[in-house]
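seq as requested:
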Amino acid sequence: MIYTLSMFNTGQITLPKSWRGKYKTTKFVAEETKDGLLIKPLIKDETVYYEDEKSFGIYCEKGLDIEKIKAAIKRMDG
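struct tokens:
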């Protein structure tokens, strides 16, 4: 089902109640794709890594293995 979402002046959007109930999480990942924005639930203990030409980021609710952090930094250093 497709829903129309409204954005508040703070940049927040509200997900439909049926989606919030279906995915037992309060964390979501938003990704820009060639088709637009893709919003996905963040599954517990899932690690999210992103990078572009200017920056990178890592998110993991339970912490992250230091070797993964060092590898990400090494990739950014070239």
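The chain has a mean pLDDT of 80.
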